[in-house]
């Protein structure tokens, strides 16, 4: 672990967070990733479905191209299929080769402002005492921190800009509390992996229901032989019917109805998880006066001072794109949107860090339209 202040603290370990962090590190910025889980890019391992957007993103973004080339060298990319094990193994190596620190298995709590940092004298990562804060204030340096919960207690990760790439967006919710609204989505997505010796010439589509919930089901080959990926979109007005307890309780019924309609018999269940990356749960209604926002499906929003940025699939456009395409476009839409948002926001953060007339980290990048 390095000591002192980071340029950027990126909260979250998914594809958006990793691409965002690596894009900034390659421009010379000092970056740390704060991840709740024990590995990076987990969403690609969860869906186990083709990711055709990888080649498209690689053609437009050099940082994605180097990642895809690394995967191919190790056999982790075969056409549109990405091996979930290789993705997660190489993601860790990829970020560390770029000098990025990673803090695993911690829970982000909140953003600490400069004033709050000055009041704290204990429980802070090395190099973040009150003298540090006083000196940075005199120098006119940005000052913030991400507070995280660890097994040893609460720590603060000092940074100039905090970037929230978590799906729950805990920092964004607190920062934009006056303009954030909770959004009750009418659906959740689930990813299941089963073993089966049958062959599928094309994906199978099915629909069934339990209680007052409706399940749209798509069965497709996985990246591994004799393994199938089943994506289920559960629609219900009652949030509890879309939840884990209700869904897992009705899973046998879902399998039986799928067999009745398609003739496909699901084998042993290997994996089941909620695709939280494709289930937006809130919308940021920040106006131009309150924040800088890039509108559209791949979105980011920043506080007026540029000290904190949030990245995610939480806009109405994102929800519409994911709902329309997740079952019929092999599940890669949400992942692509997160990757694009992370890459676009990196341009904005880079410009905030170098500031007008500063050439230490490279030339200023023009902001994209809508940013």
Layout of helices and strands:
Blueprint: E1 6-11, H1 15-25, E2 31-34, H2 42-47, H3 53-60, H4 62-73, E3 77-78, E4 81-82, H5 84-97, E5 101-103, E6 107-112, H6 114-119, H7 130-138, E7 144-150, E8 153-164, H8 170-175, E9 180-182, E10 187-195, E11 204-210, E12 213-221, E13 227-235, H9 244-249, H10 251-262, E14 269-274, E15 282-284, E16 292-294, E17 299-302, E18 308-312, H11 316-325, H12 333-354
Helix pairs in contact: 1-12, 3-4
- Structural class by SSE content: alpha+beta
Helix content: 25-40%
Low-confidence stretches: 121-140, 178-183, 279-289, 357-364, 366-371
Helical stretch count? 12
What is the H/E order? EHEHHHEEHEEHHEEHEEEEEHHEEEEEHH
Radius of gyration: 21 Å
Could you state the oligomeric state of the chains shown?
Answer: single chain
* Head-to-tail CA distance between termini: 33 Å
Please tell me the overall pLDDT.
76
Principal-axes shape call: globular
Number of beta-strand segments: 18
Characteristics of this structure?
371 residues; alpha+beta; nine-stranded mixed sheet; five-stranded antiparallel sheet; 12 helices; disordered C terminus
Structural summary, described in words:
The protein is an alpha+beta fold. The chain has 12 helices and 18 strands. The protein has helices at residues 15-25, 42-47, 53-60, 62-73, 84-97, 114-119, 130-138, 170-175, 244-249, 251-262, 316-325, 333-354, and strands at residues 6-11, 31-34, 77-78, 81-82, 101-103, 107-112, 144-150, 153-164, 180-182, 187-195, 204-210, 213-221, 227-235, 269-274, 282-284, 292-294, 299-302, 308-312. The strands form 4 sheets. Strands 1, 2, 5, 6, 7, 8, 16, 17 and 18 form a 9-stranded mixed beta sheet that branches. The longest helix is centred in the C-terminal third of the chain and has 22 residues, at 333-354. The radius of gyration is 21 Å and the shape is globular. The model is unreliable at 121-140, 178-183, 279-289, 357-364 and 366-371 (pLDDT under 50).
């Amino acid at each position: 672990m390095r000591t002192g202040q980071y340029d950027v603290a990126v909260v979250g370990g998914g594809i958006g967070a990793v691409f965002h962090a690596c894009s900034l590190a390659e421009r010379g910025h000092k970056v740390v990733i704060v991840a709740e889980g024990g590995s990076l890019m987990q969403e690609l391992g969860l869906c186990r479905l083709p990711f055709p957007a990888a080649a498209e993103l690689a053609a437009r973004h050099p940082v994605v191209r180097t990642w895809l080339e690394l995967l191919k060298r190790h056999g982790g990319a075969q056409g549109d299929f990405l091996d979930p094990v290789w993705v997660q193994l190489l993601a860790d190596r990829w970020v560390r080769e770029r000098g990025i620190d990673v803090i695993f298995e911690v829970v982000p709590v909140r953003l600490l402002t400069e004033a709050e940092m000055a009041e704290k004298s204990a429980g802070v990562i090395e190099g973040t005492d009150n003298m540090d804060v006083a000196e940075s204030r005199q120098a006119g340096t940005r000052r913030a921190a991400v507070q995280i919960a660890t097994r040893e207690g609460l720590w603060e990760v000092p940074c100039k800009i905090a970037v929230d790439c978590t799906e729950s967006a805990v920092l964004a919710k607190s920062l934009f509390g006056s303009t954030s609204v909770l959004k009750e989505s009418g659906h959740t997505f689930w990813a299941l992996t089963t073993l089966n010796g049958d062959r599928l010439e094309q994906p199978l589509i099915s629909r069934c229901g339990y209680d007052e919930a409706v399940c749209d089901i798509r069965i497709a080959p996985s990246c591994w032989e004799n393994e199938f990926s089943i994506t289920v979109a559960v629609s219900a007005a009652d949030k509890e019917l879309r939840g884990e307890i209700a869904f897992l309780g009705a899973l046998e019924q879902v399998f039986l109805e799928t067999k009745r309609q398609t003739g496909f018999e699901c084998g042993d269940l290997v994996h089941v998880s909620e695709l939280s990356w494709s289930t937006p749960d809130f919308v940021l209604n920040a106006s131009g006066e309150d924040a800088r926002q890039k509108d559209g499906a791949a979105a980011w929003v920043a506080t007026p001072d540029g000290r904190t940025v949030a990245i995610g699939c939480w806009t109405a456009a994102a929800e519409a794109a994911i709902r329309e395409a997740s079952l019929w476009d092999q599940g890669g839409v949400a992942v692509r949107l997160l990757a694009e948002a992370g890459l676009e926001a990196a341009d904005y953060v880079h410009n905030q860090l170098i500031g007008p007339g500063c050439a230490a980290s490279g030339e200023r990048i023009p902001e994209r339209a809508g940013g």
